[in-house]
């Protein structure tokens, strides 16, 4: 079966992604409420939306870094531009996200075009430093210089004195999509000890994430995507053949920036507030970690990396002494006290240490990221072929597969 111009294999892959995305509220609640392991549940709206939003951010960054090899440390600037754009639409028109999100994509795309036009005159580490410089300039402009537009360190938010010319008398006063309020839950079923939350905002974000994932899939399979891979493999050789690679890299940079702007706009749809901290270099570094951890240049890698990091940030950081005491209460006091003291170094405020150690292990033993780990596990369960490769294989070798396969 083929849909939307995809091959049968890619269609199956897309359907699996759609299923996993829509079933996330169930899949992320594996433990019953009230159990000791319920701490590891992640099926609540705020965290699920962050999974989807940063998945979009990472997918876009992967189009640039994963396909072309250009490492940008300035993509947080586009994230911030998208957030500011959506909040300004709230202030000027109303809380309907439909006005702000398309404009956030366009605005961040124009901003990425300007930055990319200058930065892509250089490559390698020089390109990375240029993007970092632009991002830091953007952050400082938003934080102190452009305070009439960004509201500086306080952050841009909506006030009752704002014009909001389209705001109706009965219209919600929080972000919504034609009356569907983002923060509201439309279903909260209970099955035994399990409680599931189905949230409007998550499914709105999830549908957008599926759409942009499909677009990235088409880019990966297109001649344009093949040219980006060629640029990553040997850009100098392409230049010697007379091919001007700069339009391709600039297009990839702009598309990547538009993805980041969309993610920033969705963050404002989740919380109607935009601050300069979203433009800091640490946010750019975070998306780099997401892509590398998941698997740069792969389709699922950025999504896995984004989910992995956001899970650690939100779940492991909230494990405190009370939770640890509940886990180790069945042990002798001296042993439980020792384990709690040791655990302090890996959870709570020290969750970065655990994430750093896991990142080191992945980089050392799984250069292909979490996707490579999944591939290795899958190979363990695959049926091994006969040692001689089949009847007559010694005298009749099989033809080698095409490189594009």
Automatic annotation (TrEMBL):
Q: What is its main location?
A: membrane
Where does the sequence pass through the membrane?
Answer: 12-31, 51-71, 76-93, 99-118, 125-146, 201-220, 247-267, 287-309, 330-347, 353-374
**CDD domains, per database record:** TM_PBP1_LivM_like
Keywords assigned by UniProt? Cell membrane, Membrane, Transmembrane, Transmembrane helix
Protein's UniProt name: Branched-chain amino acid ABC transporter permease
Is Mitochondrion tagged as a keyword? Answer: no
Membrane-related topology note: Multi-pass membrane protein
Region: Disordered, residue numbers: 384-405
Keyword Cell membrane set for record: yes
Q: Name one Pfam family in it.
A: BPD_transp_2
Annotated localization: Cell membrane
């Amino acid at each position: 079966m083929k849909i939307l111009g995809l091959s049968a294999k890619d269609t199956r892959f897309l359907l699996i992604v759609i299923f996993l995305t829509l079933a996330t509220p169930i899949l992320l609640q594996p433990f019953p409420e009230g159990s000791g392991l319920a701490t590891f549940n992640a099926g609540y709206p705020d965290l699920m939306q962050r999974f989807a939003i940063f998945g979009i951010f990472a997918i876009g960054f992967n189009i640039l870094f994963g396909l072309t090899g250009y490492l940008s440390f300035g993509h947080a600037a586009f994230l911030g531009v998208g957030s500011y754009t959506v909040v300004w639409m709230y202030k000027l028109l109303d809380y309907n996200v439909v006005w702000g999100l398309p404009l956030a994509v366009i605005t961040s795309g124009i901003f990425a075009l300007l930055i990319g036009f200058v930065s892509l005159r250089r490559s390698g580490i020089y390109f990375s430093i240029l993007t970092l410089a632009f991002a830091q300039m953007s952050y400082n402009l938003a934080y102190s210089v452009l305070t009439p537009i960004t509201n500086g360190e306080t952050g841009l938010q909506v006030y009752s004195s704002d014009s909001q010319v389209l705001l109706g008398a009965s219209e919600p006063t929080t972000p919504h999509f034609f009356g569907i309020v983002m923060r509201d839950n439309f279903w909260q079923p209970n099955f035994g000890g399990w409680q599931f939350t189905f949230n409007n905002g998550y499914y709105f974000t999830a549908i957008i994430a599926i759409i942009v994932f499909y677009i990235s899939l088409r880019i990966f399979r297109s001649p344009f995507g093949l040219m980006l891979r060629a640029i990553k493999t040997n850009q100098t050789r392409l230049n010697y053949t007379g091919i001007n690679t700069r339009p391709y890299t600039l297009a990839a940079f702009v598309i990547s920036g538009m993805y980041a702007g969309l993610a920033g706009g969705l963050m404002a749809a989740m919380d109607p507030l935009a601050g300069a901290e979203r433009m800091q270099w640490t946010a750019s570094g975070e998306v780099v970690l997401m892509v590398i951890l998941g698997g740069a240049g792969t389709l699922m890698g950025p999504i896995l990396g984004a989910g992995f990091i956001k899970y650690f940030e939100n779940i492991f950081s909230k494990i405190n002494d009370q939770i640890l005491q509940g886990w180790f209460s069945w042990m002798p006091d001296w042993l439980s006290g020792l384990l709690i003291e040791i655990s302090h170094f890996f959870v709570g405020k020290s969750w970065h240490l655990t994430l750093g150690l896991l990142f080191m292990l992945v980089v050392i033993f799984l250069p292909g990221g979490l996707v490579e780990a999944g591939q290795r596990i899958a190979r363990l369960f695959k049926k091994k072929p006969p040692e001689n490769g089949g009847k007559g294989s010694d005298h009749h070798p099989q033809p080698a597969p095409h490189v594009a396969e």
